[in-house]
Amino acid sequence: MTDQAAASGALISIPVLLARNALKYGANTAYREKEFGIWQSWNWIETAEEIRALALGYLSLGIEKGDYVAVIGRNRPALYWSMVAAQKVGAIPVPLYQDAVAEEMAYVLENCAARFVVAADQEQVDKVLEVQERVKVIDHVIYLDPRGLRKYDHSRLHSLRDIQAEGRAAHERYEAELQRREAAITYDDTCVMLYTSGTTGRPKGVVLSNRNIIETSKNSAEFDHLRPGDEVLAYLPMAWVGDFIFSIGQAYWVGFCVNCPESADTMMTDLREIGPTYYFAPPRVFESQLTNVMIRMEDAGRFKRWLFRVFMDHARKVGPALLDGKPVGAWDRFKYALGNLFVYGPLKNTLGFSLVRVGYTAGEAIGPEIFDFYRSLGINLKQLYGQTEASVFITQQPDGEVRSDTVGVPSPGVELKIGDNGEVYYRSPGTFVEYFKNPESTRDTKDPEGWVATGDAGFIEPETGHLRIIDRAKDVGKMADGRLFAPKYVENKLKFYPNILEAVVFGNGRDYCTAFINIDLTAVGNWAERNNIAYASYQELAGHPRVMAMIQDHIEEANQSIAEDEMLSGCQVHRFLVLHKELDADDGEMTRTRKVRRRFVEEKFDDLLNALYIGKTEIYTETEVTYEDGRKGKIKATLEIRDAAVVADTGRMAAE
Q1: Which of 312, 331, 514, 570 is the most exposed place for a label (fewest CB within 10 A)?
Q2: Residue scoring higher pLDDT (243 or 493)
Q3: 3-class secondary structure for 631-645?
């Protein structure tokens, strides 16, 4: 029985951890959810009861051990419960990206042969029903929000609350079977299957065991001294491995509270109300928050702007040292305390970071300037390096050893090595079991000794043991003259500017680097409003001469910074254009986790890329786009191409 396993200390599955938490932390809040503007809470005892009722309901529907249960929707307690309930009955949860289009969803559902689908609302139900003719294996669809579904055929469509009610009513019939299935769970049984984002092809199902998730959660939680009183905000896609580790793995290991915002639109307000102590966000979230801060400061009065500039300059000088406990002079401490009173404290409160004790960013490299900005405020923001196949954690930054140019030391239990070609390899207790139905890819990624190829190029600093990531191994190359080409390094420099949302840099095998730029519509739109510049669309604003001049200034400033790095000075951007549309996952240009699919972009916009390299000053193009309702259309534009000033490479000239 699970209760017996928990009592004996054999913490070998998430259901066992749930039973342990109900016994040990029963009255502590386990989940909060904001709905209709009101926060609702469930403690660990109530959570265990909700999950038990749902597990019994699953049994009444005929779920079998080894079945796959797809879960689709935004972060909600009931959807997390549906995954843990699936584990209790020996099934395997498979969370999907809620913004996936029907075709993407069909591939995953068909690949894992999901018999059961838990869908949050009518939108997700409609997508499942759309593909049900193709995905013949789906037996039952369970929905959480009943709005709009009253007149649907309910022969195989069920309310999650009705399933729970059925489970409670039939508990005497299914209790023994539930206990038998829970008792049969082993440490090496599958805990969850998560699909990769698919930057280079079809997504692959990553099979992660109870051992992978629990060992990783235990080690990483102890590394950062997480505790039951911590609060975390669950807002990232449930299909992403990071959310699973933070909101289920670590949450159940430590016993802290998972808070679910009302919607993406209210996330920032909900963040301020909760005041998490443990926080994770990918770089794009921190970039967006910094952009909003800068926009607000540009709209502020002259005195406020002066105050912000003076104290932020001081914060950048001494803030990180104070955070790391390093010696700082009495006057600098006093001035920082004044800054905290007038600037840093109110700013952290506005961002919702007043109580953050441990903050992390990962997913892709964050610009050093952005990273240092948050640490200068006294926010303990750190970098980690990980991937789905590692159950997230490969490296972490210990307190007192946080730097913007490394991703830290190996996480507890993780071994690292660098291949002959500079690729990073690891092995750990979190190393995935296999790619589902894909033994060839499994062999290509994980060798017989358990070493996993990350696909990233980097090196380990001999003095500190810290890992430095240069770029994706497949993206790192050489310029025509043999100098190193690392596009992500340049892109992060460019994305520091609030006006630049996305940048894609090219140059491998070529004489010089060029770039596609996406403007940030919020930041640039705000700037346009202040400068009385009228525009009717993203395309019109992106092509405005003053916007082009502003982007050119940013690129030339970034070039000066890039030129200071002798190894990467050849990556300065010589020519650029501002794209007429935002890169979009629906158009295949980005993954659902907002990573640019570089090869796809290069092929899709090959006419624009060629124009950058043959000396054109403008190029006419037509591009197919996908609208929110799924319709296809075309947008036409004539794009201006500009040259950017570069700094002479003195090291190269001296060598010549």
Answers
A1: 331
A2: 243
A3: CEEEEEEEEEEEECC
Coil, helix or strand at residue 80: helix
Query: pLDDT for 110-126, tens place per residue?
Result: 999 999 999 999 999 99
H-only helix segments in 329-367: 330-339, 345-351
395-402 — which CB contacts under 8 Å span 24+ positions? 395/466, 395/467, 396/220, 396/223, 396/224, 398/223, 399/324, 400/324, 400/325, 401/464, 401/466, 402/320, 402/323, 402/324, 402/375
Helix (H, G, I), strand (E, B) or coil at 620: strand
Domain boundaries defined on the chain: 2-210, 284-379, 477-655
Q: How wide is the angle at C-alpha 190 spanned by C-alphas 185 and 194, nearest 5°?
A: 150
* pLDDT confidence bin for 627, thresholds 50/70/90: confident
Residue type, 370: I
The token duo for 21 is 């938490």
* CATH number belonging to domain 477-655: 3.30.300.30
The Cα 210–Cα 194 span in angstroms is: 13
Residue 200 has pLDDT above 60, yes or no: no
Helix (H, G, I), strand (E, B) or coil at 141: strand
Q: Helical H runs in 11-147? A: 14-24, 44-61, 77-88, 102-112, 122-131
pLDDT at 655: 39
Mean pLDDT score, 613-641: 89
DSSP 391: T
- Tell me 100's DSSP state: -
Q: What is the rounded distance in angstroms from the CA atom of residue 336 to the CA atom of residue 40?
A: 38
Cα distance between residue 381 and residue 356, in whole Å: 9
Q: Give the whole-angstrom CA distance, residue 586 versus residue 103.
A: 11
Q: Which residues pair with 500 in a beta bridge?
A: 519
Q: What is d(CA 505, CA 479) in angstroms, rounded to the nearest whole number?
A: 13
- Reduced to 3 states, what is the DSSP secondary structure of residue 348? helix
DSSP state of 75: S
Looking at residues 620-628, what average pLDDT do you find? 87
Handedness of CA 33, 34, 35, 41 (dihedral sign): positive
Residue type, 626: T
End-to-end CA distance of the chain: 74
Compute the half-sphere exposure of residue 467: CA atoms within 13 Å on the CB side of its CA: 31
Provide CATH code, domain 2-210: 3.40.50.12780
State how far the Cα of 492 lies from the Cα of 502, in Å rounded to an integer.
Answer: 9
Question: Which parts of 113-191 fold into alpha helices (H)?
Answer: 122-131, 160-169, 171-183
Give the residue with greater pLDDT, 45 vs 202: 45
pLDDT digits (tens, 9 = 90+) for 503-526: 999 999 999 999 999 999 988 998
Around 631, how many Cα atoms within 13 Å sit in the side-chain half-sphere?
3
Closest by CA to 611, choosing from 619, 599, 621, 620, is: 619
Mean pLDDT confidence for 400-415: 93
Cα–Cα distance between 60 and 402 in angstroms, integer? 51
| Ramachandran angles phi, psi of 428, nearest 5° | -165, 170
